[in-house]
Amino acid sequence: MEEILNLLVLTPEEQRRFQDAAPGLSQRFAPGGRPLPGQPELTAEDYARAAVILGNPPAALLGEGCALRWLHTRSAGVDTYTVPGVLPAGAMLSCSTGAYGHSVSEHLLAMLLALMKHLPEYRDQQNQGQWRDLGQARTLEGSQVLVVGAGDLGGSFARLCTALGADTMGIRRDTAQPVTGISALYPMEALDRLLPAADVVCLTLPQSPQTVGLFDRERLLRMKPDAILLNGGRGSVLDCQALAEVLAEGHLWGAGLDVTDPEPLPPEHPLWRQPRALITPHAAGGDHLPDTARAIARIALLALKCYVSGRPLPNRVL
């Protein structure tokens, strides 16, 4: 009998639904890799024996020789598991794209408004007991927002910006598929043409050979001198050293980053010391909003039903 190792954080009702979805399969629940009360700790053999894993197992416990046929991650990013040799040959891989739009988009909007209103600098002044007006602020009303990577995350962010009066453009591979909240879609080839017109550039791209290093010094300098840059996708898309240099030279109003390259950003990295950079430790998604776990459960449950019935997997990567 195939064994399912379910590492998702589920309510008792959700566990029942997962059991009902795969009645012919043995299923063990261990939220986040931790056993349920009264259950033994997971071992390397438990991971190696599972034909299906729902969640994010340690990559080192997978590889050739394990029974894995399908891995569905609780994350939207799957970089860890696409490294050659991590998954056994022929194993399928799917992810939880669609679960993080709410959480990440609100985080990015909070960073954007904080930068527009000088809030990080005012907090610095507060810590020093200073009362000093920092002058002109910015608004989203009437601004031009360019979302590079107009999928679930980018579309969710665009809708928030539109509600505050911004005009939005988006870049994505499939420009024929409309995205709610984005008024115009363009292919990646239009990026250099669109950058100089954008007041805000938001990066919500996945990691791929085509996106690594996409925003280098040259592209950063193509942006308006007072533009704001946000990155909530993958840190590898942006050259953080180049960004630190560009900010030090006075280019850009500011930058808000929830992801960096490298990650974590080393303490000696010059970007830490840029007053117009706002950095958070990859905290936009994860478990920070309760509804994220519920969304992950819905996506994974649908995927399990598809797997059991032999239908194509949603969000399949490999």
Tell me the series of helices and strands, N- to C-terminal.
EHEHEEEHHEHEEHEHEHEEH
Weakly predicted, low-confidence segments = none
* Strand arrangement, major sheet: 8-7-6-9-10-11-12
Structural class: alpha/beta
Taking all residues together, what is the mean pLDDT? 97
Notes on the protein architecture:
With 318 residues, the protein is α/β, with parallel strands linked by helices. Helices cover 29% and strands 14% of the residues. The protein has a 7-stranded parallel beta sheet with strand order 8-7-6-9-10-11-12, sandwiched between helices. Helix 8 (240-248) links the parallel strand 10 (228-231) and strand 11. The longest helix is centred in the last third of the chain and has 20 residues, at 290-309. The two termini are 24 Å apart.
Any descriptors?
single chain; 318 residues; alpha/beta; seven-stranded parallel sheet; five-stranded parallel sheet; 9 helices; elongated
